[in-house]
Protein backbone atom coordinates (compact mmCIF):
# COMPACT_ATOMS: atom_id res chain seq x y z
CA UNK A 1 0.00 0.00 0.00
CA UNK A 2 1.24 3.45 -0.88
CA UNK A 3 2.21 5.33 2.26
CA UNK A 4 1.72 9.04 2.17
CA UNK A 5 4.44 11.25 3.49
CA UNK A 6 4.08 14.75 4.77
CA UNK A 7 6.84 16.82 3.24
CA UNK A 8 7.75 20.45 3.54
CA UNK A 9 7.63 22.02 0.10
CA UNK A 10 10.47 24.14 -1.00
CA UNK A 11 9.93 27.88 -0.81
CA UNK A 12 11.11 29.95 -3.63
CA UNK A 13 14.64 31.06 -3.15
CA UNK A 14 15.19 34.64 -2.25
CA UNK A 15 17.26 36.83 -4.44
CA UNK A 16 20.17 36.43 -2.05
CA UNK A 17 20.06 32.63 -2.41
CA UNK A 18 19.49 32.92 -6.15
CA UNK A 19 22.63 34.90 -6.47
CA UNK A 20 24.69 32.50 -4.37
CA UNK A 21 26.57 29.67 -6.06
CA UNK A 22 24.79 26.31 -5.69
CA UNK A 23 25.10 22.72 -6.73
CA UNK A 24 23.04 21.13 -9.50
CA UNK A 25 19.32 21.55 -8.78
CA UNK A 26 17.32 18.44 -7.95
CA UNK A 27 14.37 17.89 -10.27
CA UNK A 28 12.18 15.99 -7.77
CA UNK A 29 12.20 15.46 -4.05
CA UNK A 30 12.71 11.98 -2.61
CA UNK A 31 9.00 11.27 -2.10
CA UNK A 32 8.13 12.41 -5.61
CA UNK A 33 10.82 10.14 -7.01
CA UNK A 34 8.97 7.25 -5.37
CA UNK A 35 5.72 8.46 -6.93
CA UNK A 36 7.45 8.60 -10.31
CA UNK A 37 8.45 4.93 -10.04
CA UNK A 38 4.89 4.11 -9.02
CA UNK A 39 3.57 5.93 -12.07
CA UNK A 40 5.50 3.74 -14.48
CA UNK A 41 4.42 0.52 -12.76
CA UNK A 42 0.75 1.53 -12.73
CA UNK A 43 0.99 2.52 -16.39
CA UNK A 44 2.38 -0.89 -17.37
CA UNK A 45 -0.23 -2.81 -15.37
CA UNK A 46 -3.12 -0.65 -16.60
CA UNK A 47 -2.05 -0.97 -20.22
CA UNK A 48 -1.71 -4.76 -19.98
CA UNK A 49 -5.03 -5.17 -18.15
CA UNK A 50 -6.83 -2.91 -20.64
CA UNK A 51 -5.50 -4.94 -23.56
CA UNK A 52 -6.41 -8.33 -22.07
CA UNK A 53 -9.82 -7.17 -20.86
CA UNK A 54 -10.67 -5.74 -24.27
CA UNK A 55 -9.71 -9.05 -25.88
CA UNK A 56 -12.19 -10.82 -23.57
CA UNK A 57 -15.12 -8.79 -24.86
CA UNK A 58 -16.91 -10.87 -27.49
CA UNK A 59 -18.11 -7.76 -29.30
CA UNK A 60 -14.50 -6.80 -29.99
CA UNK A 61 -13.45 -9.83 -32.04
CA UNK A 62 -11.48 -8.79 -35.09
CA UNK A 63 -11.20 -5.16 -33.95
CA UNK A 64 -7.98 -3.35 -33.06
CA UNK A 65 -7.75 -3.67 -29.28
CA UNK A 66 -5.24 -0.87 -28.69
CA UNK A 67 -7.80 1.82 -29.41
CA UNK A 68 -9.70 3.49 -26.61
CA UNK A 69 -13.18 2.54 -27.76
CA UNK A 70 -13.30 -0.54 -29.90
CA UNK A 71 -17.00 -1.38 -30.06
CA UNK A 72 -18.21 -1.61 -33.61
CA UNK A 73 -21.99 -1.47 -34.15
CA UNK A 74 -21.63 -3.72 -37.19
CA UNK A 75 -20.06 -6.50 -35.13
CA UNK A 76 -22.38 -9.33 -34.07
CA UNK A 77 -21.90 -11.37 -30.95
CA UNK A 78 -21.52 -15.12 -31.51
CA UNK A 79 -24.66 -15.59 -29.41
CA UNK A 80 -26.60 -13.28 -31.73
CA UNK A 81 -25.51 -15.28 -34.77
CA UNK A 82 -26.41 -18.53 -33.00
CA UNK A 83 -29.84 -17.20 -32.05
CA UNK A 84 -30.53 -16.11 -35.62
CA UNK A 85 -29.46 -19.51 -36.95
CA UNK A 86 -31.74 -21.33 -34.48
CA UNK A 87 -34.77 -19.18 -35.27
CA UNK A 88 -34.24 -19.65 -39.01
CA UNK A 89 -33.88 -23.40 -38.46
CA UNK A 90 -37.14 -23.53 -36.51
CA UNK A 91 -38.92 -21.80 -39.39
CA UNK A 92 -37.58 -24.43 -41.79
CA UNK A 93 -38.65 -27.37 -39.61
CA UNK A 94 -41.97 -25.86 -38.54
CA UNK A 95 -43.77 -25.75 -35.21
CA UNK A 96 -45.31 -29.17 -35.74
CA UNK A 97 -41.98 -30.85 -34.99
CA UNK A 98 -40.38 -31.07 -31.57
CA UNK A 99 -37.01 -30.03 -32.95
CA UNK A 100 -38.57 -26.96 -34.55
CA UNK A 101 -40.19 -25.97 -31.26
CA UNK A 102 -36.94 -26.48 -29.37
CA UNK A 103 -34.98 -24.40 -31.87
CA UNK A 104 -37.48 -21.55 -31.63
CA UNK A 105 -37.53 -21.57 -27.83
CA UNK A 106 -33.76 -21.88 -27.48
CA UNK A 107 -33.12 -19.34 -30.24
CA UNK A 108 -35.23 -16.73 -28.44
CA UNK A 109 -33.36 -17.55 -25.22
CA UNK A 110 -29.96 -17.14 -26.88
CA UNK A 111 -31.07 -13.79 -28.29
CA UNK A 112 -32.05 -12.58 -24.81
CA UNK A 113 -28.73 -13.82 -23.43
CA UNK A 114 -26.96 -11.92 -26.19
CA UNK A 115 -28.80 -8.73 -25.19
CA UNK A 116 -27.70 -9.22 -21.59
CA UNK A 117 -24.13 -9.77 -22.79
CA UNK A 118 -24.23 -6.60 -24.89
CA UNK A 119 -25.44 -4.60 -21.88
CA UNK A 120 -22.71 -6.14 -19.73
CA UNK A 121 -19.95 -5.42 -22.24
CA UNK A 122 -21.12 -1.85 -22.75
CA UNK A 123 -20.96 -1.36 -18.98
CA UNK A 124 -17.48 -2.87 -18.80
CA UNK A 125 -16.28 -0.73 -21.68
CA UNK A 126 -17.72 2.48 -20.24
CA UNK A 127 -16.80 1.96 -16.58
CA UNK A 128 -13.61 -0.12 -16.78
CA UNK A 129 -11.99 -0.33 -20.22
CA UNK A 130 -12.14 3.36 -21.09
CA UNK A 131 -11.02 4.59 -17.63
CA UNK A 132 -8.08 2.16 -17.76
CA UNK A 133 -7.19 3.49 -21.20
CA UNK A 134 -7.34 7.08 -19.93
CA UNK A 135 -5.15 6.17 -16.98
CA UNK A 136 -2.52 4.31 -19.00
CA UNK A 137 -2.53 6.39 -22.17
CA UNK A 138 -3.57 9.89 -21.07
CA UNK A 139 -3.26 10.72 -17.37
CA UNK A 140 0.06 9.06 -16.56
CA UNK A 141 1.73 10.02 -19.89
CA UNK A 142 0.70 13.65 -19.29
CA UNK A 143 2.38 13.58 -15.88
CA UNK A 144 5.47 11.97 -17.39
CA UNK A 145 5.52 14.56 -20.15
CA UNK A 146 5.32 17.30 -17.55
CA UNK A 147 8.17 15.60 -15.69
CA UNK A 148 10.37 15.81 -18.80
CA UNK A 149 9.42 19.45 -19.24
CA UNK A 150 10.43 20.17 -15.65
CA UNK A 151 13.80 18.50 -16.21
CA UNK A 152 14.37 20.80 -19.19
CA UNK A 153 13.41 23.87 -17.15
CA UNK A 154 15.81 22.81 -14.39
CA UNK A 155 18.61 22.58 -16.94
CA UNK A 156 17.67 26.00 -18.30
CA UNK A 157 17.70 27.48 -14.81
CA UNK A 158 21.05 25.89 -13.96
CA UNK A 159 22.50 27.18 -17.23
CA UNK A 160 21.22 30.70 -16.58
CA UNK A 161 22.65 30.65 -13.07
CA UNK A 162 25.99 29.38 -14.34
CA UNK A 163 26.19 32.18 -16.89
CA UNK A 164 25.38 34.73 -14.22
CA UNK A 165 28.10 33.54 -11.84
CA UNK A 166 30.60 33.25 -14.65
CA UNK A 167 30.00 36.91 -15.40
CA UNK A 168 30.61 37.61 -11.72
CA UNK A 169 33.99 35.86 -11.83
CA UNK A 170 35.00 37.55 -15.05
CA UNK A 171 34.28 40.97 -13.53
CA UNK A 172 36.68 40.17 -10.68
CA UNK A 173 34.08 40.78 -7.98
CA UNK A 174 33.66 38.74 -4.85
CA UNK A 175 30.93 36.11 -4.98
CA UNK A 176 29.15 38.02 -2.19
CA UNK A 177 28.99 41.20 -4.22
CA UNK A 178 26.36 41.49 -6.91
CA UNK A 179 27.68 42.72 -10.25
CA UNK A 180 26.16 45.80 -11.78
CA UNK A 181 25.61 46.98 -15.31
CA UNK A 182 23.19 46.21 -18.11
CA UNK A 183 24.66 42.81 -18.91
CA UNK A 184 24.63 41.70 -15.29
CA UNK A 185 21.05 42.89 -14.84
CA UNK A 186 20.00 41.00 -17.96
CA UNK A 187 21.68 37.79 -16.77
CA UNK A 188 20.13 38.13 -13.33
CA UNK A 189 16.65 38.67 -14.80
CA UNK A 190 17.15 35.72 -17.10
CA UNK A 191 18.14 33.54 -14.14
CA UNK A 192 15.18 34.69 -12.04
CA UNK A 193 12.72 34.09 -14.89
CA UNK A 194 14.10 30.60 -15.43
CA UNK A 195 13.81 29.89 -11.71
CA UNK A 196 10.24 31.19 -11.68
CA UNK A 197 9.21 29.00 -14.63
CA UNK A 198 10.84 26.01 -13.00
CA UNK A 199 9.03 26.57 -9.69
CA UNK A 200 5.65 26.96 -11.41
CA UNK A 201 6.16 23.74 -13.36
CA UNK A 202 7.43 21.93 -10.27
CA UNK A 203 4.41 23.02 -8.24
CA UNK A 204 2.03 21.84 -10.95
CA UNK A 205 3.85 18.53 -11.33
CA UNK A 206 3.88 17.97 -7.58
CA UNK A 207 0.16 18.65 -7.40
CA UNK A 208 -0.54 16.19 -10.23
CA UNK A 209 1.64 13.51 -8.66
CA UNK A 210 0.03 13.86 -5.25
CA UNK A 211 -3.40 13.81 -6.88
CA UNK A 212 -2.42 10.55 -8.57
CA UNK A 213 -1.53 9.04 -5.19
CA UNK A 214 -4.76 10.30 -3.64
CA UNK A 215 -6.86 8.84 -6.50
CA UNK A 216 -5.52 5.30 -6.16
CA UNK A 217 -8.75 4.27 -4.44
CA UNK A 218 -10.65 5.53 -7.50
CA UNK A 219 -8.44 3.49 -9.81
CA UNK A 220 -8.95 0.41 -7.64
CA UNK A 221 -12.72 0.88 -7.85
CA UNK A 222 -12.58 0.09 -11.59
CA UNK A 223 -12.01 -3.56 -10.73
CA UNK A 224 -14.74 -3.60 -8.10
CA UNK A 225 -17.06 -2.26 -10.79
CA UNK A 226 -15.97 -5.04 -13.13
CA UNK A 227 -16.79 -7.77 -10.58
CA UNK A 228 -20.14 -6.17 -9.74
CA UNK A 229 -21.04 -5.98 -13.44
CA UNK A 230 -20.06 -9.62 -13.92
CA UNK A 231 -22.16 -10.68 -10.94
CA UNK A 232 -25.18 -8.77 -12.27
CA UNK A 233 -24.75 -10.23 -15.76
CA UNK A 234 -24.48 -13.81 -14.52
CA UNK A 235 -27.41 -13.32 -12.12
CA UNK A 236 -29.70 -12.08 -14.90
CA UNK A 237 -28.50 -14.80 -17.28
CA UNK A 238 -29.18 -17.48 -14.66
CA UNK A 239 -32.67 -16.10 -14.02
CA UNK A 240 -33.36 -16.15 -17.75
CA UNK A 241 -32.19 -19.75 -18.13
CA UNK A 242 -34.11 -20.91 -15.08
CA UNK A 243 -37.28 -19.31 -16.41
CA UNK A 244 -37.04 -21.06 -19.78
CA UNK A 245 -36.07 -24.53 -18.52
CA UNK A 246 -39.62 -25.43 -17.36
CA UNK A 247 -40.93 -24.52 -20.81
CA UNK A 248 -38.32 -26.72 -22.48
CA UNK A 249 -39.12 -29.64 -20.18
CA UNK A 250 -42.85 -29.19 -20.76
CA UNK A 251 -42.34 -29.35 -24.52
CA UNK A 252 -40.25 -32.49 -24.16
CA UNK A 253 -42.74 -34.20 -21.87
CA UNK A 254 -45.74 -33.33 -24.03
CA UNK A 255 -44.17 -34.88 -27.12
CA UNK A 256 -45.51 -38.42 -27.47
CA UNK A 257 -43.25 -39.58 -30.31
CA UNK A 258 -40.34 -40.74 -28.22
CA UNK A 259 -37.96 -43.69 -28.65
CA UNK A 260 -38.95 -46.77 -26.71
CA UNK A 261 -35.82 -48.88 -27.07
CA UNK A 262 -33.46 -48.47 -24.13
CA UNK A 263 -36.00 -46.43 -22.15
CA UNK A 264 -37.59 -47.43 -18.82
CA UNK A 265 -40.85 -49.31 -19.28
CA UNK A 266 -42.78 -46.98 -16.96
CA UNK A 267 -41.62 -43.87 -18.85
CA UNK A 268 -42.64 -45.30 -22.22
CA UNK A 269 -46.06 -46.33 -20.95
CA UNK A 270 -46.66 -42.97 -19.27
CA UNK A 271 -45.67 -40.94 -22.32
CA UNK A 272 -47.55 -43.08 -24.83
CA UNK A 273 -50.62 -43.58 -22.63
CA UNK A 274 -50.48 -47.32 -23.21
CA UNK A 275 -50.78 -50.31 -20.89
CA UNK A 276 -48.64 -52.56 -23.08
CA UNK A 277 -45.35 -51.38 -24.56
CA UNK A 278 -45.69 -50.75 -28.29
CA UNK A 279 -42.80 -53.08 -29.34
CA UNK A 280 -44.20 -55.92 -27.21
CA UNK A 281 -47.76 -55.51 -28.48
CA UNK A 282 -46.76 -55.09 -32.13
CA UNK A 283 -44.23 -57.92 -32.20
CA UNK A 284 -46.40 -60.40 -30.29
CA UNK A 285 -49.40 -59.60 -32.49
CA UNK A 286 -47.40 -60.15 -35.69
CA UNK A 287 -45.83 -63.34 -34.37
CA UNK A 288 -49.23 -64.76 -33.45
CA UNK A 289 -50.42 -64.07 -36.98
CA UNK A 290 -47.47 -65.24 -39.04
CA UNK A 291 -44.72 -66.73 -36.94
CA UNK A 292 -46.04 -69.52 -34.79
CA UNK A 293 -45.21 -72.16 -37.38
CA UNK A 294 -41.74 -70.81 -38.09
CA UNK A 295 -38.90 -73.15 -37.17
CA UNK A 296 -36.15 -71.76 -34.93
CA UNK A 297 -38.15 -68.73 -33.81
CA UNK A 298 -36.14 -66.67 -31.27
CA UNK A 299 -33.13 -68.87 -32.09
CA UNK A 300 -32.22 -68.09 -35.68
CA UNK A 301 -30.70 -64.63 -36.05
CA UNK A 302 -32.42 -62.30 -38.54
CA UNK A 303 -30.78 -60.05 -41.11
CA UNK A 304 -28.93 -57.27 -39.26
CA UNK A 305 -30.13 -54.56 -41.65
CA UNK A 306 -33.72 -55.80 -41.50
CA UNK A 307 -33.62 -55.90 -37.68
CA UNK A 308 -32.18 -52.40 -37.50
CA UNK A 309 -34.89 -51.07 -39.80
CA UNK A 310 -37.68 -52.75 -37.82
CA UNK A 311 -36.37 -51.40 -34.51
CA UNK A 312 -36.19 -47.90 -35.97
CA UNK A 313 -39.78 -48.24 -37.22
CA UNK A 314 -40.97 -49.33 -33.78
CA UNK A 315 -39.02 -46.49 -32.17
CA UNK A 316 -40.85 -43.84 -34.18
CA UNK A 317 -44.23 -45.59 -34.01
CA UNK A 318 -44.50 -46.27 -37.74
CA UNK A 319 -44.80 -49.93 -38.71
CA UNK A 320 -45.68 -51.63 -42.00
CA UNK A 321 -47.06 -55.02 -40.93
CA UNK A 322 -47.14 -56.39 -44.47
CA UNK A 323 -43.43 -55.71 -44.96
CA UNK A 324 -42.35 -57.79 -41.97
CA UNK A 325 -45.00 -60.51 -42.00
CA UNK A 326 -42.75 -62.61 -44.23
CA UNK A 327 -39.80 -62.35 -41.83
CA UNK A 328 -40.86 -63.58 -38.37
CA UNK A 329 -37.22 -63.92 -37.31
CA UNK A 330 -36.77 -60.14 -37.62
CA UNK A 331 -39.92 -59.64 -35.52
CA UNK A 332 -38.65 -62.05 -32.86
CA UNK A 333 -35.26 -60.35 -32.91
CA UNK A 334 -36.86 -56.92 -32.42
CA UNK A 335 -38.83 -58.24 -29.44
CA UNK A 336 -35.71 -59.79 -27.89
CA UNK A 337 -33.77 -56.56 -28.42
CA UNK A 338 -36.46 -54.52 -26.69
CA UNK A 339 -36.52 -56.79 -23.65
CA UNK A 340 -32.71 -56.95 -23.58
CA UNK A 341 -32.29 -53.17 -23.77
CA UNK A 342 -34.70 -52.33 -20.95
CA UNK A 343 -32.75 -50.52 -18.19
CA UNK A 344 -34.37 -52.89 -15.68
CA UNK A 345 -35.41 -56.41 -16.72
CA UNK A 346 -39.11 -56.96 -17.29
CA UNK A 347 -39.09 -59.55 -14.49
CA UNK A 348 -37.23 -57.04 -12.23
CA UNK A 349 -33.99 -57.40 -10.35
CA UNK A 350 -35.76 -57.40 -7.00
CA UNK A 351 -37.49 -60.71 -7.81
CA UNK A 352 -34.39 -62.42 -9.19
CA UNK A 353 -34.07 -64.79 -6.23
CA UNK A 354 -37.78 -65.64 -6.38
CA UNK A 355 -37.52 -66.67 -10.04
CA UNK A 356 -34.40 -68.75 -9.40
CA UNK A 357 -35.91 -70.51 -6.41
CA UNK A 358 -39.14 -71.24 -8.29
CA UNK A 359 -37.27 -72.69 -11.27
CA UNK A 360 -35.32 -75.03 -8.98
CA UNK A 361 -38.45 -76.70 -7.57
CA UNK A 362 -38.68 -80.25 -8.91
CA UNK A 363 -42.40 -80.77 -8.47
CA UNK A 364 -44.14 -79.32 -11.51
CA UNK A 365 -47.31 -78.17 -9.74
CA UNK A 366 -45.38 -76.54 -6.92
CA UNK A 367 -43.00 -74.91 -9.41
CA UNK A 368 -45.97 -73.50 -11.31
CA UNK A 369 -47.48 -72.10 -8.12
CA UNK A 370 -44.16 -70.52 -7.17
CA UNK A 371 -43.84 -68.93 -10.61
CA UNK A 372 -47.39 -67.58 -10.39
CA UNK A 373 -46.59 -66.20 -6.95
CA UNK A 374 -43.54 -64.41 -8.35
CA UNK A 375 -45.68 -63.01 -11.17
CA UNK A 376 -48.12 -61.56 -8.66
CA UNK A 377 -45.25 -59.68 -7.01
CA UNK A 378 -44.38 -57.86 -10.23
CA UNK A 379 -45.22 -54.13 -10.44
CA UNK A 380 -48.49 -53.52 -12.34
CA UNK A 381 -46.77 -52.26 -15.49
CA UNK A 382 -44.33 -55.17 -15.57
CA UNK A 383 -47.07 -57.68 -14.78
CA UNK A 384 -49.33 -56.46 -17.60
CA UNK A 385 -46.53 -56.66 -20.16
CA UNK A 386 -45.25 -60.02 -18.86
CA UNK A 387 -48.65 -61.65 -19.30
TrEMBL record:
Keywords: Cell projection, Endosome, GTPase activation, Phosphoprotein, Synapse. It comes from Knipowitschia caucasica (Caucasian dwarf goby). This is Rho GTPase-activating protein 44. InterPro entries: AH/BAR_dom_sf, BAR_dom, RHG17/44/SH3BP1-like, Rho_GTPase_activation_prot, RhoGAP_dom. It comes from the Eukaryota. GTPase-activating protein (GAP) that stimulates the GTPase activity of Rho-type GTPases. Thereby, controls Rho-type GTPases cycling between their active GTP-bound and inactive GDP-bound states. Acts as a GAP at least for CDC42 and RAC1. In neurons, is involved in dendritic spine formation and synaptic plasticity in a specific RAC1-GAP activity. Limits the initiation of exploratory dendritic filopodia. Recruited to actin-patches that seed filopodia, binds specifically to plasma membrane sections that are deformed inward by acto-myosin mediated contractile forces. GO terms for molecular function: GTPase activator activity. Pfam families: BAR, RhoGAP. The keyword Zinc-finger does not apply. GO terms for cellular component: dendritic spine; leading edge membrane; postsynaptic density; presynaptic active zone; recycling endosome. Gene3D superfamilies: Arfaptin homology (AH) domain/BAR domain, Rho GTPase activation protein. Interacts with BST2 (via cytoplasmic domain). Interacts (probably via PDZ-binding motif) with SHANK3 (via PDZ domain); the interaction takes place in dendritic spines and promotes GRIA1 exocytosis. Residues 263-387 form the Rho-GAP domain. It is found in: Cell projection, Dendrite; Cell projection, Dendritic spine; Presynapse; Recycling endosome. Residues 17-257 form the BAR domain.
Amino acid sequence: MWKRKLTISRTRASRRHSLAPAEKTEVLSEDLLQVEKRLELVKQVSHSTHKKLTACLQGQQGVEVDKKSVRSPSKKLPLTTLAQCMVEGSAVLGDDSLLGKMLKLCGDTQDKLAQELITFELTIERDVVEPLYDLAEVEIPNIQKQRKHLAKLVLDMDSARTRYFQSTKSSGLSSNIQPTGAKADHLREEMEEAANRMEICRDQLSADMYNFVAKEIDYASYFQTMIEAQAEYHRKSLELLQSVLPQIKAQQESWVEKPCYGKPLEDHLALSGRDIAFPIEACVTMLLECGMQEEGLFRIAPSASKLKKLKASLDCGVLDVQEYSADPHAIAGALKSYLRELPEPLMTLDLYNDWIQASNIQDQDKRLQALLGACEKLPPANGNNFK
